[in-house]
Amino acid sequence: MPPVLVTGATGRIGRGVIDRLVAAGVPVRALTRQTEAAAKLPAGVDVVTGDLTVPASLDGALRGAGAVFLLWTAPPTSAAAVVGRLATHARRVVFLSSPHRTPHPFFGQPNPMAVLHAEIERLLAAAGIESTIIRPGMFASNATAWWAPALRAGDVVRWPYGAAETAPVDDRDIAAVAARVLYEDGHAGGDYVLTGSESLSQAAQLGIIGDVLGRPIRFEELSPDEFRGATEGKAPRPVVDMLLAAWGATIGRPAYITSAVADILGVPPRSFAEWVADHADAFERAPIPSS
Predict the structure, then answer these.
(1) Which pLDDT band, with edges at 50, 70 and 90, does 35 fall under?
(2) Where along the chain do its domains lie?
(3) 4-138+168-194 belongs to which CATH class?
(4) Which of 59, 136, 158, 263 qualifies as a FRET site for 178, CA 20 to 30 Å off?
(5) Is the pLDDT of residue 288 over 70?
(6) Spatial CB neighbours of 165, under 8 Å, sequence gap ≥ 6
């Protein structure tokens, strides 16, 4: 069996894909810019160096690969050349994209990353590569970046659009779906939007975190302008504006939910409460230094 080449091999999703491929007995080749970063990958994984910004550096990694898991982590300038090399060497590609085609206002707002994803999809189709597109919605792990700092410091989260509903999907379910469609037949041409099974407001998600931690959490609503001020210098303004537009557009509507995770894996997606329970340490209060 030819190996599967996994890009983004040391990130949360890429590493999860590798673990599941190894567990299924699939040979794995892991692409990384620095081999030291891949030291903790499972035994038997073939670690190769390469960089999406230097397309020629991928030739050795692609040679003999049967399929590629493509997680784009580079500027768009090299996308066409990378896809050209994929078309030369790989039989099929599973691309981690975004739900920019989804008929829901949350995903319909201007989004530079969605523009990039759409262009890579266009390039894959034009090159005639057999491909499968997976489109995770809101990652459950966003809660760590967004709310963990405040919860480690106290019990108040100041945030906009508490009523905006999303259906957080567990990173582990995303990785499991990607691995399954890489080695299982029948997914050529597949286009899968991945979500959790619950439509939860942001305030409700914080309530779940509080329930798991066993402590009350107070949500304080910020206006969009207050949020822009609070994130000044901490997050890129285009990202902040994109999030505000997406949350604002979905007020009054439940989140978009699909059955794709269950359809592909044969088990329901993990709940947000399960994700929080498995990552509770990220939200625990910092210990008070002893005097």
Answers:
(1) confident
(2) 4-138+168-194, 142-167+197-255+270-283
(3) alpha beta
(4) 59
(5) no
(6) 199, 200, 201, 202, 250, 253, 254, 255
